[in-house]
Specification:
The protein is built from six helices and 15 strands. By secondary structure, the chain is α/β, with parallel strands linked by helices. A six-stranded mixed β-sheet has the order 5-4-3-2-1-15, with helices on one face. Strands 6-7-8-10-13-14 form a six-stranded mixed β-sheet, covered by helices on one side. A three-stranded antiparallel β-sheet has the order 9-12-11, with no helix packed on it. The longest helix has 17 residues. The protein starts with a strand and ends in a 5-residue tail after the last helix. InterPro entries: Aliph_Amidase/BUP, C-N_Hydrolase, C-N_Hydrolase_sf. It comes from Microbacterium soli.
């Protein structure tokens, strides 16, 4: 069994030091409850409305203020605005024992309706699963999970636990888009079809007219919600998961194993040649 804590927190826009202190406090509380990993929301060290800030407050992934979060016992996955030298990224750093084990940059930046992420971030260019103390893990950042191919690729790279972090707000888009309903169905689909654990961490609080709804949860490889945080309010949700359940399910019903990757490669290559988005 692995014990995971989901820190469903609010953050202060642009106040990195205050948000780091919130993160530290949550990590210590999670440690006291026996957690081996603490997961924070998307951009939890910076806030979402980056375009409204009067200066660049991004952090390098190896900034000691960030890496020290991994010195308290549990591993930590934290969302932040990354200083990538020439470019800035919406990123998540997985920190273990004071070192960055992995950095995932958001791949699909929404740039429509009220979302304008491409104004202040560049898109990531790769996705990698990686081995951590809790098992083989992949990180997806919000809109990445709305592209079905991304979780599928993570599963093909061996991910048994998908850590999906978000800044999802209710009523922050067209009336036909019920974010809570979409996420509920989407997360169960990813868990079942990719036969993996899904750990979803969403923010709470209000920022520049957006109200973030929380509802963080853990879903097993059969699509069952095994733990769920409240809506709208901060919460530290702690849950034990059996990683072997993903391995057993993949052996029992080998959906992930029958991907036929060469067939996929040929068809994607054909679509690109026909004028598709490369």
């Amino acid at each position: 069994m692995v014990r995971i804590a989901i820190a469903q927190v609010d953050c202060q826009l642009g106040d990195v030091e205050a948000n780091l202190e919130t993160a530290r406090s949550q990590v210590l509380s999670a440690r006291d409850r026996g957690a081996e990993l603490v997961v924070f929301p998307e951009l939890s060290l910076h806030g979402y409305a980056l375009a409204t800030l009067d200066e660049d407050r991004s952090l390098r992934a190896d900034d000691p203020r960030l890496t020290v979060l991994g010195d308290h016992g549990p591993d930590v996955l934290v969302g932040f605005h990354e200083d990538g030298a020439i470019r800035r990224y919406n990123s998540a750093a997985y920190v273990s024992e004071g070192e960055v084990l992995h950095v995932q940059r958001k791949l699909y930046l929404p740039n429509y309706l009220v979302w304008e992420e491409k104004k202040h971030s560049s898109a990531g260019q790769d996705l990698r699963a990686f081995d951590a103390r809790v098992g083989r893990v992949a990180t997806l950042i919000c809109n990445d999970a709305w592209q079905p191919v991304v979780p599928w690729l993570a599963a093909q790279d061996g991910a048994e636990i998908m850590l999906i972090i978000a800044d999802s707000a209710s009523g922050y888009g067209p009336e036909s888009l019920d974010n809570i309903h979409y996420w509920t169905e989407l997360l169960r689909f990813h868990a079942m079809m990719n036969q993996s654990w899904v750990v979803f961490c969403n923010r709470v609080g209000t920022e520049r007219g957006a109200r973030f709804w929380g509802g963080s949860r853990v879903i097993d490889p059969l699509g069952q919600v095994v733990a769920e945080a409240q809506l709208w309010e901060p919460e530290l949700l702690v849950c034990d998961i059996d990683v072997d359940k993903a391995r057993h399910r993949r052996h029992e019903v080998p959906l992930v194993a029958e991907a036929r990757l060469d067939f996929v490669r040929r068809e994607v290559t054909r679509l690109i040649a026909d004028g598709g988005d490369a």
